[in-house]
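Job type: complex structure
Entries:
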Amino acid sequence: CSKSFLDKGPVDKKTIENFYKTPADGMEALTAAYDGLQYGDYDNITLVSEIASDNCFGGGGESDLPWKRWDRVENDVNLNEGAWTRYYTGIYRANILLAHLNDIDWGADSTLKVRYRAEARFLRAYFYFDLVRMFGNVPLVDHPLAPAELQMKQAAPADVYKFIVEDLEAAAADLKPVSYSAIPTSEYGRVTKWAAEALLGRVFLFYTGYYQQPDVAGVLTKAQTRTYIDDVINQSGYGLVDSFPTLWQSSRKAFVGEDNKETVFAIKFTYKGLGDWNKHDGNRMQVDIGIRNAVDTPYYKGWGAGTVTPKLWNSYETGDTRRGATIISINDEKLGVPTPFPQYTGYFWKKYAMMYDDRPDQPSIGGDFQIDNYYDFVCIRFADVLLMGAELNLDGDLAKAQGYYDRVRDRAFRNHSHTHTLTNDANGLQLIFKERNLELALEGIRYWDLLRQGMTKTKAEIDNNSTDPQFQVTFRPETKGLFQIPQQEISVSNGALVQNPGWSN
Amino acid sequence: SPRPQPASVYAMAPAHELHGTVTGAKDNAPLPGVSIQVQGTNRGTVTGADGRFTIRVNDNDVLVITLMGYQRQTITVHNQTTLQISMAEAATGLDEVLVVGYGTERKKLNTGAIDHVASASIDQQHNLRVDEALQGQTPGIQVTPTSAQPGEPMKVRIRGTGTIGNANPLYIVDGVPTYDISYLNAADIASMDVAKDAASTAIYGARAANGIIFVTTKKGKRGIISLGYDGFYGVQNPSRKLPLLDAHEYEVIMNEAGINSGRGPYFTLDQVNSAGKGTDWQEAMYNKNAPIQSHAINVTGGNDKSVYASSISYMKQEGVIGFKGQSVYDRLNVRFNSEHDMYKDIVKFGENFTYSLSNKSGVGVGNIYANTIRGIVNTSPLFPVYDSAGNFAKSTWNPDETNPIALMRYQNNNKAKTDRLIGNVYLQAQPIKGLTIRSDFGLDLSYYNYNNYLPTYNLSTNVVNNHTRATMGMQRVATWNWDNTVAYEHSFGKHRFNVLAGMSSLQADTFYVNGYKEDLIIADQDHAVINNGTNEDTKQVYGSHNQMSLLSYFGRIGYNYAEKYLVTAVFRADGSSMFGPNNRFGYFPSVSAGWVVSNEEFAKRIHGLDFLKVRAGWGQNGNLPLLNWAYLATVSSNYQDYYFGSDESKYVGTSPNQIPNPDLKWETSEQANIGIDGQLFRAFTFTVEFYNKTTKDWIIQPPVPVIAGTSAPLVNGGSVRNRGVEVMVGYENNDHQLHWRVNGNIGINRNQVIDIPNTGKVIQGQTGTNYVGGDEYYRAQVGHPIGYFYGLKTNGIFQNEKEVSAYTGKNGLIQPNALPGDVRFVDLNGDGIIDSNDKTQIGNPFPKFTYGINAGVNYKGVDLSLFFYGNQGQDVYDGIRDYSRPVSNYTTEILGRWTGEGTSNRLPRMTLGDDKNLNMTRSSDLFVHKASFLRIKSINLGYDFKTLFPHMPMQQCRLYISGLNLYTFTQYKGMDPEIGYGPDSWSSGVDLGAYPQPKSLLVGLNVKF
């Protein structure tokens, strides 16, 4: 009698013992890992890395000190707690699914199991790659941790990259080579073989550049990477859309749409959270980069973060269709000048700018303009894959490299007359780096591209000696470009974690 | 008026009738209402208006004669048939009867640390909340408001904060356990007994670690019917304003900050010169002369079969902040207690029931989000409350800035209603002398419902709401307990034994639903119901249901020899559904002993020593935390959706929401107590207590590295020690005409964390709780008080470049980024850099001691009482200014900032918060302020017109005026030094803009027929 009287339990929750039973449970567990992609607000890695680079200032209002701190490489205490937390949350969700894969009754057909495992491993690698690029020295968690394991020391970067490569290679091997046109529209947003291969290229280039190594920790060579990238370029069915501006929602009626053939991997966002701040289903970066406090039609309002540097605007040649599609110029577009705010430059993000006609708080949608912006964020765009291909083939098959390069540049100018000839030397590489920023500016690529060119180059590009003190930026090479590990985590680790060089606790 | 009563019906055919008269010793006047009880039975009677009584007795019966305010007497009948009894007034409370849990005990013979608080002490405070009335009445209990908004709960701590979990005491109201006594009306309370030590509380074992407050409501008396009215009406006003910058000062300061931060000035010289005073937002937020009122009608009475007490009362308090009627609490109480003799005084049946209906609405309080007062003190004075058209004005100089009065209006349209029915029914039998069998069923039923209306508004760039919304919520919590006890007491010779054994089962059932719907057809608060909403896409609904149960067995053995040597032992076993099968039951023993020195022959010869008792006790208690299936590995699907496909189809995501701990077990508090009670010269009383209380095996959720990926597990570990001294002294002069009394109490408590179960021996405080992005500033750590203030020490301001360059350590400049006017932080560890390793204890939220002083005088119908309450030695962490917004307003203290060499050595130069030295970005002692205070809590002056007109048909007709909280002596510069709020339940003393306590003036009337 006493036993039953004291035996209560939750009526609104399952427990691990009665979850992870069916393939549907497996999909729920996988979805939880995907959900980790959507997090990130003012501290979204794309926005933060663009601010840290030479493309953007901090911007925002008087109160928005975090953006200014990222811009000026300044100490704070817990600036990066959000990023650190969300990546480890995502990693945990992938780990817990992987740990319970064998508890699920998959039936006779193991296809789903192989696929879910591959997607989980891709997601885990994706989270780790963001994490390790930002912080450099991070604990390597490869399974759900027992309480006794939580005071974990940081792993050698090579071990983390090795782990990332292994996950991505496994994902690439296990996922079926379904070409873009054969992917069911209901599966847009899911990880593909092509995404895994393309990410391997990005990992290879960053690691070998930043750490000045010939390969990734002995597990991924340049030759292998070329094969992966060539495979994406030639076999995936992905390609460039005809006109660069039509890639972006700002082209309105001409917009080719989300999940277009250039979208190798994207984070799916939706307005369907409809004002619920507990949900992270919207693209919260979009309100941050909007024109501050002003509805300048056709654009909708935002907080003015990451004001674009005149340097980026000026780096485009006349005739390059990408300038007007990448950057809003208040002058050129004859827009109303917003109320002055810190680090206002007159240039804003046009990629991902929320358009007035698409605004989430219009009556027909009913969302909140702060959290329900809903443009998908394209993490890996086919143009990036082509430029990676060009870079990887520069010292191998120069003609192939030139071909990839031309596809990107010719599209931008709508003709072949602006091409440059690549050479297998530093000049050739510089042409590719330059093209990467012209093509991929404000897509969260630039800062990492600078870092892999070394501290001297990074400092030279980022430093700003403006006479106006608000624009002065001094990169600190002693940080090696790594971000400050949140103080809270160092405290809680009780000495297991060590702060990155150049940052104070 | 009292009538003589016939004698009772007898249980055991007594031998003869006894007639008696009771008179007062002082004036020989007959005393009505005196209880004459045959010891060990339920037989008894009371005296009539003429002081006479009649009772049937046996020769060997012992009569117990009691009357409130008089010394208790016992008389053995032998063969007497008439008795002349003279009663002396009780000079002290030694004959008070204490509630000890499943029984009572005379204070004289009690071996634990229990303080009795009589209704008179409670009434004089005129508190609408009973817990608040305990403040300062007895040492060792600290009562602090977390917010002084009407109807908000108090933070009640007995002998310090013993846990980082639930540290609230358990209340036992007429035998029914509860954690919330907000439903009680002070006028219904006969007494409260605060049980502080382990020996006194052990009978409630698993829930007793934080102390127990026994509340006894008023009961009827046989033979007396009495009707009374108590009521008062008063007005309340804000007691202290923050001295905020006016418009001119604000513009000067902001310009200076803008210039120093490289931004340039915000305002032109012309603007600065013509700015004037600007808006005083504080004046706009006040609801001055806010009314407070309370009315209670009591009826008590009884005959030889039944006694009853019943009352109806209503109270209402408006807050001093908010629009009229926006911050308000009211409560209706109906109470009924009765007891009936069912069979020949052997079987009794009774019940106590209270129904209350309370309504509460209020402005935003609590943390930094939606805190109305915080918004008001951080807004620039540069734009008016209303524009020329009478609408809420918008900030013209800063589109980010929101009109805080508009926010107060729009975001605080809430109504919460609570129906509470709490009470018990019991059946008690005394089949043979000394044996009592009792079965008691208690019920605590609470229905809470909540209604909120959110209008549309557009106040600033990010304070915009496009959808009207109606939120409704409802929660039912039903807790029942069924206690069965057997008690036996027996004396032979000078030996007296009593034994109690019992079992108790308790179940709490919580059921709630809430939700909202937007776009209302009729958009106002009266129509803010879900059915008026039209938006199907954004509607939300939540709801759940859970149960918890507790099964307990307990026993108590007491023994005394000649009322000289006293021993009590208690044991309790509790099993709870909150724990997994591994550690479901907890076991809690205690033992205590006393020596009544004054009953020894040698002591009886000491002149003036009326009473002296030395007592000591030891015991262990548990603490039942509020857990959410922490022993189970639960998975959750909340907010983990993802949308795949071109049509964005929703997929539900699921993952574990916590790391389980199947071995979780009870927190245990162990306490030793030594006490001395004494009385000298019939007028002077004292009690001194020493205690040492350690709570170990805390159930805590220490933050773990987020690499865990999900919520940290709850674990057992950590301990905190509270030890202290409590002293109560009283003097009472009972002169015939002039009666005066004064008593004081002081509680000294030292809180120190002894252990924390992680390698750093620390539980970090939450960051970002003083302002968005704020640093960690409180923590729990071994060797420090729990929730101590944590940060850098400062050592003045760098006056010039030379001082910056002179501040060197082993790596050269200690603060290379500092400029003249920046803060010089102390490099505590001497490593040559300033970082978090230099952080240390910079303040203590706990007072060194708390004290209360009560004084009263009565003279010919005039009564005057004074009550002072004070806390000494505690600090407050000043989180009022929102440093995440550089344009937040300041108090005038900032006018003393550093502006050049020699101008200030405490407040740094103005910046927009982006200084590289992080002057105000890091937690430091600049935020810690001393907050000792002494408060005039109440002054009451009354006159009983019965004295003037003795032929009035009533027993009492007292008119009084009272002043509450009239003045506070303190050096703290905030609105109120008494700050209970802390971001975690174990933290306190954090001022984020706390709703301050008002000062009040009342007029009241007590009438009794």
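Summary: Chain A touches chain B through 101 residues (CB under 8 Å). The mean pLDDT of chain A is 95.
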